[in-house]
Amino acid sequence: MRNWTKTNWGCRVIASALAVSAALVLGVSPAFADSDDDEIVTYGPNACSVVADLPAYPNATCVKQERETKRNGVEIENDYTSPDSADAVRQHFENVFRQNGWTIVKSKADLDDQEWEYTVTKNGRRVSVEVDTVKPHKGGGSKFSIEEKPARQTTQ
Fold first, then answer.
1. 76 & 11 share domain
2. Residues 36 and 13 in one domain
């Protein structure tokens, strides 16, 4: 009987620890969260965080944020959808880049598919913006992502 009591107590401690761990993980956000070691994926209209000096397109809805810890910092990617055209979203970002002092260091355009990719920098920060058309049979409009990458380390 004595061994059963110790085993029972040990099971209760383990079950309690698992319950506390689950509560901590699930308490990350009111949106649905999925964790993969050093990556946290959050879904829902409140999941995205604002990238300083780079506002998202105003007529867009956040659908997902991926946050991953890297050796040199945290990488954050916000994904959005909009009922507006990809060209309207592209124009918004090109204006925002100019108005807020971002430098375009890389750009790529596929005019046939209405897709654009930009890498911009400002004060050591590096951000990638991708804008794509959503095909009419999938609802139309556009989707875009804003990915802020950790600053690159310089060697001395």
1. no
2. no
